[in-house]
Amino acid sequence: MADFYAVTADEILQGKITDIYFERAKEILKKEGLSRLRVVAEVHAYSMPKGYEWAVLVGVSEVVKIFEGKEVDVYALPEGTIFRPVHPVMNIEGPYEEFCEFETVILGILRHSTSIATKAARCKKIAGDKALLFFGTRAVHPLLALIADRAAFIGGCDGISDVYGAEKLGLKPVGTMPHALIILFGEQVKAWKAFDKHMPEDVPRIALCDTWFDERVEALMAAEALGPRLYGVRFDTPSSRKGNMRRIVEEARWALDAKGFNHVKIIVSGGVDEDAIMQLRDVVDGFGVGTSIAFPPSIDLSMDIVEVEGEPRSKKGKLPGKKNLYRCWNCFEDYMVLSKVKMDSCPRCGSKVEEMLKPMVLKGKVVHEEKSPKEVREYVLKQLSLIKELKPAPSS
C-alpha cells in the first residue's frame, strides 16, 4: 500500500484524519476542564444543490463503527433514508472529547456516499423502469471504487460494471464490450461474432455500435450478424459526434423495426446525465451512467452542537436543541420537533407516524443491524415511488 496515497482503517479509527482545529479545541477544553461537557451534536444539511429537495442518506453503517467503545449514544436515520433540508439525520450524544476529532471523517464518509447515492436516485427516478447501469468506477480512485459502487447501487442503479464491486455487493457485473475489442479485430462484425462465440450464455449479447460507422448502420450490421441472439446495441457516441441523440436513437429504432429486429434493445451511454435520461427515456431501453453519478453535486452535510449539558445552544443560523424526526408514510411527510415533544399521528391525515432517528450506538455498543445493499436499495426504491415526478436539476 506504500505505493498508493491511502490511509488504513486503523488510522481512521485512531482519529489521525482530522482537521487541526479539532485537535486544538480538544487540547484547550482539556486544559480548561471543559472536555467532559456533555453535548448533543447534530448532523444535517441546511442547504442542498440547486433543484434538489431531498437526498438519500448513505454511509451510516460505516460511521457507527467509529463510535464503538466510546462513551456516546448515536441515533440516526436508517441507511438509505430520504431526508430533507434542515432535518437532523444523526444525533451524537456524549462528552465532547469522545468524538471531537472524528467530525472530519464522519462528514467525509456521509457526504461522499450520500452525494453519489442521491444522484443515482435522481437518475433512477427519472429513468423509471428503464435500466440504469453504473459505469463510473473509472472516474474515481480505485481505493474509492467499492464506496462509489455501493452508493450508486443503493441509490437505485440496477447494476454496476466493476468486477470487484459487484462481487462484494453480491451482484453479477454488467457491461458489453470496449471499443478496444473492435479496434483490435479491425472489423465490427468479427468482434461481435467473437464475443458471441466465447462469452457464456448468460451474458447478454449487446453489441457496441458506434466505433466507425453511423449508429443506425452498425446497429443493422449487428442485428444481421447475430440475428435472434442479439439482445441489444449500445451507443457510446462521443460528444464531438453526438448531434441530436434522440434523433439518432429514433432513426436506429425505426430501421431495426423495419427490418424485423424489434427484439433488439437500445442502450445509451457516454456523458449521460439527468437531462439526457429525461430526453431519451421513452425511446431507449437503458442507460449507462458514469461521471455524473461518480462526481455528483455535493450534499452539504455539516455537524453542529445544538445542546450543552441539557441546555439548547447553537451558533447563529442553526436551530438549537436536541430534535427528533417523525414520518408519515401515508403522506410521505416528515415532521421535525424538539425531542421532548412526542408525536403519535400525522397532523395532515391522522395516520400513525414513525420515529425516524433510530438507536445506532448506545454507551459505546453498536446496536445497529446492518442491512444488505440489496435490502437498502429496495428501501430507497420504496421511498422514490412516493416522490413526485422529478425535473432534471439545472446544470452547474
Question: What does this protein look like?
Answer:
- The chain has helices at residues 9-13, 20-31, 60-66, 103-127, 145-155, 163-169, 179-185, 188-198, 215-226, 239-242, 245-258, 274-280, 291-294, 373-384; strands at residues 38-44, 55-56, 73-76, 82-83, 88-95, 131-134, 159-160, 206-208, 232-235, 265-269, 286-289, 302-308, 311-312, 323-328, 333-338, 354-355, 358-362, 365-366.
- The chain is of the alpha/beta class and 396 residues long.
- The protein has two domains: 9-116 and 297-384, nicotinate phosphoribosyltransferase; 127-294, TIM Barrel.
- Strands 13-12-1-5-3-17-18 form a seven-stranded antiparallel sheet, with helices on one face. A six-stranded parallel sheet has the order 7-6-11-10-9-8. Strands 15-14-16 form a three-stranded antiparallel sheet, with no helix packed on it.
- Helix 7 (179-185) crosses helix 8 (188-198) and helix 8 (188-198) crosses helix 9.
- It starts with 8 loop residues before the first helix and ends in a 12-residue tail after the last helix.
- The model has no long low-confidence stretch (mean pLDDT 95).
Give the percentage of residues in beta strands.
15-25%
CATH topology of the largest domain: the name is nicotinate phosphoribosyltransferase
Strand segment count = 18
What would you say the CATH architecture of the largest domain is?
A: Alpha-Beta Barrel
| Whole-number mean pLDDT | 95
Number of domains: 2
Strand order of the largest sheet: 13-12-1-5-3-17-18
Q: Pick out the low-confidence regions.
A: none
Q: Compute the gyration radius: what is it?
A: 24 Å
Distance between the termini: 36 Å
The rough form would be described as: elongated
Query: Could you give a short account of the major beta sheet?
Result: 7 strands, antiparallel
Q: Which structural class do the helices and strands define?
A: alpha/beta
The CATH class assignment of the largest domain is: Alpha Beta
Per CATH, the superfamily of the largest domain is nicotinate phosphoribosyltransferase
Number of helices: 14
Bin the helical content: 25-40%
